[in-house]
Each structure stands twice: as structure tokens, then as C-alpha cells.
């Protein structure tokens, strides 16, 4: 009888330990969900966040010398063709700087659409005067760093 009580007591201790471990595990999961929920609710009530911009530094591999307008038009047409006008408006890609002598430039785009812009760089630019490929070098968060990569910054 004493052996049976000891075995039952041992089983109860093991079950209690398993239940405690499961409770701690699920409590962590619940805390994580509540933390995410809290940040989402606070974002809705708080002020709207300013959309972040990214600067994509690129270089041109060309057999000619395309102008700034040709590159801008090419990227705008590619955005409209592949993603539509709505995404073009949200991404708002802008050619900030273009050095035609060294064939390098900087595009500014919304942080959510950086990969969209880089994927469009794979489309070759073909005009009557030249054929080009836009090669992305680096993505930065500030224009100062982007210009430093090109060699124009201090």
C-alpha cells in the first residue's frame, strides 16, 4: 500500500511539473501576442509615422551615355508596367543625383518598395542611342552616405 501511494505521489509530482512547464511556455506565447497587440493599438491611436526613405546607389553599364531624363522615364515606365500606378505613387521613386561622367546615381524610394526598385533595375534600358543595365551598388538610409559611396560626399 505504501509503495502504491509513493508511486501515485511520484506520478502527481511529474504531472504537476509538466503542467507547470506547459503553463510557463504558453504564458510566454500569450505575453508575446499581447505585446504585439499593444504596439498595434498604440500605433493606431498615436500620431502617424513618417514614411522612411531609402537611397539606392547605382551604376550604369552602357555602351552610350544616357541622360538623366531617359533613366527616370525608364524606371517610371517599368514601375507602371510591372506594379501599376498605385504602387508607383506609394513608392515615389525619385532620381536624386546623377553623375553622367562616372555613370553613377542615387534613387530615393519608400522603404517598403526598395526591393521593387532593385528588381526593376534588372530590366535593360534600350534606346536608339545606347543599351544600358542599371546595377545597384548599395542601399543606405541617408543621402549623405549615398553621396559618400559615389565619391561626392565628404
From TrEMBL:
Task performed by this protein: Part of ribonuclease P, a protein complex that generates mature tRNA molecules by cleaving their 5'-ends.
Q: Lineage of this protein's species?
A: Archaea, Thermoproteota, Thermoprotei, Desulfurococcales, Desulfurococcaceae
Top-level EC class, please?
Answer: hydrolase
Q: Which GO terms describe its molecular function?
A: ribonuclease P activity
Q: What is its EC number?
A: 3.1.26.5
Q: Which gene encodes it?
A: rnp2
Alphabetical UniProt keywords: Cytoplasm, Endonuclease, Hydrolase, Membrane, Nuclease, Transmembrane, Transmembrane helix, tRNA processing
Q: Which reaction does this chain catalyze?
A: Endonucleolytic cleavage of RNA, removing 5'-extranucleotides from tRNA precursor
Q: What is this protein called?
A: Ribonuclease P protein component 2
Q: Family per UniProt? A: Belongs to the eukaryotic/archaeal RNase P protein component 2 family.
- What is known about its subunit structure? Consists of a catalytic RNA component and at least 4-5 protein subunits.
Listed transmembrane segments: 6-27
Q: Which GO terms describe its cellular component?
A: cytoplasm; ribonuclease P complex
* Broad class of the protein's primary localization: cytoplasm
HAMAP family hit by this protein: RNase_P_2
